[in-house]
């Protein structure tokens, strides 16, 4: 099979890491795979993780692959700099969208900014979700914009409605995607292989410190502030906690978190900023507990949680989205909107019950290594590819005719459009 895999492919992207694992497995099974890089701007100049099969943007080779391949997969995330070329790709050849994020407001706004259409955002959101949603967007403050988007205008329909179908990595957003996608929607468990972590040699009963770690880009929905407040609320935890956050932290968020530390009298926070892969692995190895909290939960799956589960340390997660679908016996869950005693109690459990916490981590590591393997992912991918190949001619024809009917100002519920739809259904037997 000949596949174009559209993805960010720079070293810093977690989606690129996933893509590389899947591509290697596909090629090992005899499939021909070319990489269509989706980064734009400065990120497009970053070196690829691997040069094999990477298409030069805009080249004749790229055009030939897009015209001749059996199928195109496009990886969708909520960061325009990494995924901006997907908008262009959709106009060249429809793709199967692999939805890593279900709320894609940043991708949407990045596209509008790149095309100098930011002033159209309110009107577009109003057309898709109604006037009230448009007003919510127009009046939202930066600090609560994403919460409003999740509730009223996640833009899932904007990105999934112009595809051949979708792959999702958890079930919680499946109904919304199925309602918008013109083609098949299948759920696969994210492929995210993790190299074995060599634990830092600290005795499991050492209670003189509690190494708490959070990984990834720092923003409000990662709820680092919850962890600070939970640790500060317990005199023992506040004394022993070594809380380090490994990932880029914007200046305004750094200032906010440091102000919270001063407010509650917590001195154990270290914001390390962007770190190397080596330091990331060190952080995983030294952790006594990993926190993966989200409010709201935006990801289709969490690379941080998957890595954490294979680190040998227990992982505390919010009981929401992807995290809610993890087996209860593999992670420590707190209520989705909890910043109160539940988080403090789980941190205290880890500190006071080191052996039991490590047993949970051991079970989680064994389960996650199989559940999130590239082998399992490609096994399932090979089973669903025929569904998308079968659907493509129908969907491409419908898209062309839909654009023509739109230019004729015919609505979707008109007699002419309904008659054409019945004819197409009969022709393609779908």
From TrEMBL:
Which SUPFAM superfamilies does the entry link to?
A: UDP-Glycosyltransferase/glycogen phosphorylase (SSF53756)
RNA-binding as UniProt keyword: no
This enzyme's EC code(s): 2.4.-.-
Q: Which GO terms describe its molecular function?
A: glycosyltransferase activity
Record's keyword annotation contains Membrane:
no
- An example of a Pfam family matching this protein is Glyco_trans_1_4
The protein's UniProt keywords, in alphabetical order, are: Glycosyltransferase, Transferase
Main enzyme class: transferase
Q: Which PANTHER family match?
A: BLL3647 PROTEIN, GLYCOSYLTRANSFERASE
Q: What is this protein called?
A: Glycosyltransferase
Species this chain originates from: Xanthomonas codiaei
